[in-house]
Amino acid sequence: MAKQLLGKEVTAALNERIKADVAKLEAKGVKPTLGIIRVGENGSDISYEKGATKRCETLGVACEKFLLPEDVSQEELLAVIDKVNKDDNIHGVLLFRPLPKHLNQSLIENALDPAKDVDCMTDGSMSGVFTGKPIGFPPCTPQACMEILDHYGIDCTGKKAVVVGRSLVVGKPAAMMLVKKNATVTICHTRTVDMPSVVREADIVIVAAGRAGVVDDTYVSAGQTVIDVGINVNAEGKLCGDVDFAKVEPIVDAITPVPGGVGSVTTSVLVGHVVEAAMRKFA
Ligand code: NAP
Q1: Residue 274, phi then psi, degrees to nearest 5
Q2: What separation in Å is there between the alpha carbon of 175 and the centre of ligand 1?
Q3: How many C-beta atoms surround the C-beta of residue 52 within 10 A?
Q4: pTM (2 d.p.)
Q5: N or C: which end of the chain has fewer CB within 10 A?
Q6: Which residues line ligand 1 (CB under 6 A)?
Q7: pLDDT tens digits for 16-65?
Q8: What is the number of the ligand 1 atom nearest to the C-alpha of 189?
Q9: What is the Cα–Cα distance from 207 to 227, expressed in whole angstroms?
Q10: 172, 166 in Cβ contact below 8 A?
Q11: What percent of the chain lies above the pLDDT cut of 90?
Q12: Contacts of 267 (CB under 8 A, 6+ apart)
C-alpha cells in the first residue's frame, strides 16, 4: 500500500511559514495584499476566488478585488493593471484567464509588473523559471508539486523523473523545477511513443495531462512517487485525477490523492507568493 502524500499536511506546514512572514511584515507596518482582477462571472473563477480569499483571510493577507464586466474594453483592463502596478499597497496580482476573446490576452498578461506576478502570467516570470534568475514567481501548480516532494523528504537528486504533459502552465515549468532539483527529466506528451515503458522507468512521475485516468497500472512500477496534478470530473460526477488511483496506488511507493493532493496546496502557494512579493520589497 502506497504512502499517501496529503495536501493538507503540506499546506499546514506552508501556512505556518507564511504566518511567520506575515508577522514580520506586520511588525514593519506592511499588510500583504493580493489584488484580484476578474473579468465576467465564470463559475470556476468565482469558486477559485472564494477559496483564495478565504485562505488569504486565514493567513492575514488582505484582498482587493477589481471586478469587471465581460465586455470590458482592452483600454479599461489595461488601466486597471496600470493602477495595481503603481499601487504600493498591492503586492501580488491574480488575473483570471482565459480572458474573453475580444481582449489581447498576451498583451494584457505582460502589462503586469513581474514583481507582482504571483501566478506566473508574464513572460518575465516564465523566463525566471527557465533561467533561474529571480524574476517574478513560478506558476503555483508545479510549485505545489515541489512543495509536496520537499515536505515528504523525497530527494530528486540523481533520480529519473517523468512529467506527463508539456503545457506552459504545468508540464514544462514542472520539468524545469525538477531539473533544478538535480533530477534527470523526460517530458511525455501525446506524440510520445510507448509512454507506459517511459513512465515505468521513472523514480518520480508528475502527471498533468488533463485526461481522467490516463496513467494506470500498466504505466507504473514499484518504488515510484506519483504526483497527480489532474482535476477532472468522472462519469459519476466525482472529482478525479489523471491517474487511476485504485489501480496505481497498490503498486507505487507514494501517491497524491485527488481531491486532497496538489490542488489543496496550490492556493497556499499563491498566498505565499503574495507574502514573498511583499518581503522582497520591504524585508
Ligand atoms: P493542457 O494545457 O491541456 O495540457 C495537457 C498536456 O498533456 C499536453 O501537453 C498534452 O500533450 C498532454 N496530454 C494529454 N493527453 C495525453 C495523453 N493521453 N498522453 C500523453 N500526454 C497527454 O493541461 P494543463 O493546463 O497542463 O493541465 C493539466 C491538468 O492539470 C488538468 O487536469 C488541469 O485541470 C489540472 N490542473 C490542476 C491544477 C491544480 O491546482 N491542481 C492547476 C492547473 C491545472 P500535447 O501537448 O501533445 O497535446
Answers
A1: -60, -45
A2: 13
A3: 21
A4: 0.97
A5: N
A6: 141, 164-167, 169-171, 188-192, 195, 208-211, 214, 229-232, 242, 262-263, 266
A7: 999 999 999 999 999 999 999 999 999 999 999 999 999 999 999 999 99
A8: 21
A9: 6
A10: yes
A11: 98
A12: 51, 52, 55, 140
